[in-house]
Amino acid sequence: MRYLSIILLIVTSCSTHQKSLENQKSPAPCPENGICTFDVIKDKAYEIKKDEFGNSYLDIFDGKKIVLKFKYKRNEISETADSNYEEVIYAQLDQEEIELVLNNEELKNVNLSFGRLCFCKGQTGYYSIDRGSLSVKKSRC
Question: Model-level pTM?
């Protein structure tokens, strides 16, 4: 499947108890030709499903997990039809997990998933990641 190496630092705010920290500056480097965002979504979970045509999609639903969402959205190419391109990485953690280092098959423990959303025939959709490494550290005030 996909090979990936991600290091994330999650900072929780002491003064707010929002369920989602949306569109925060990405904790990882971002390519110059796009915008990267990082979301921490509490009390949710997700799974990859397939529609009647065999296309994969992500189903996010209420749950007792924390969902981490890292998104890269490439800048649109002017005067080019269907130039939209996005890559999304999702991980779901237990609420009490503060520090985590996972490799290869262990990535299944956080349901690490990669999504490519574009007009790119045969390559769009969501995929489970089972090779690579993920390091997460939650920081509290």
Answer: 0.78
